[in-house]
Amino acid sequence: MNPFRNRKDKVPKPETSNIRPQTLPRLLPRPQVRKNNGPLYSAPMAIWFTLFFLAPIIIIIIYSFLKRDMQRGVVWEFSLEAYRYLADPVFLRITLRTIFASVVATVITILIALPCGYCMARSKHQTLLLLLIIIPFWTNFLIRVFAWMSILGNNGFLNELLLRAGLINDYIPFLYNQNAVILVLVYMYLPYAILPLFSTIDKFDFSLLEAARDLGANKFTSIVKVLLPNIRGGIFTAVLFTFIPIFGAYAVPMLVGGRDSYMLGQRIADFLRGERNWPRAAAISMVLTLITTIGVLWMMYVQKRDASRAADSKVTDHKSEA
Predict the structure, then answer these.
(1) Which residues 6+ apart lie within 8 Å of 167 measured at CB?
(2) pTM listed for this prediction
(3) DSSP class of 73
(4) Helix or strand (DSSP H, E) at 238
(5) What are the residues facing 68 on neighbouring strands?
(6) Closest Cα to residue 104, out of 195, 199, 180?
(7) How far, rounded to the nearest angstrom, does the alpha carbon of residue 123 sit from its chain's CA centroid?
(8) Can you list the domains of the chain with their CATH numbers?
């Protein structure tokens, strides 16, 4: 016989008979409501951007619609004279010269940065190569410009080397022209193009290139039709990171350029320091800001469109497999 069969020990039951149904919910633990500290965390960044980004832009916009005053900078009267100057033939020539130099320097920079980023992505010594790319940032900007001046000058390293080699009989004016400006600008902003291209190419699936080669494409065709479309976002980022600062460059054209390389950055500086025409300087700065904003918005639109197309293609592939 089971000794526990006739066991009549009773387990005490909780006394809930006296508890009314209305009081039952009060016995349950109340859910803890967490405070939203997002605005508190983002407040320092919002204050920073307001003081050092939004406020200067608002000041530039206001100054561009005021009148010039030699002593106080501006007269608080509404005027469109600064924007009428943008149609001046002299200013248009400076703008076209700046656009030409910026486009040429950007194209050369991207053409050099693409193979550099590709080789870095395929190399086993990525850390060392990244270090070599970053090393120029350890040196002051002006020191690097003066180094190029000592290389390209009439008594510089390059002319002395060519003279001693017997390749030339007289000094070649490498300095103080538009070619020198483009060369130094390419050197200065080349790391800004290599880093985003390397970051994008490093995430690329290189087996796609091998598949293209197996299907009959040569190496150049596979890179053009397979690699470049897949790293389009990195190329757009590299273009913006180089074209925008080159378009508003001031120090390089002033130090290594001549009369044929006078650019918008120098014109803005002359209006501020020499002529004290703050409204015209503000109007030109607004044009540069507008061009920069359009470029950034266009890049964001292209990246969003590419991402949506990639998502649609994945959905189509899943449906076809099903």
Answers:
(1) none
(2) 0.79
(3) E
(4) helix 232-247
(5) 74
(6) 180
(7) 25
(8) 81-307 (1.10.3720.10)
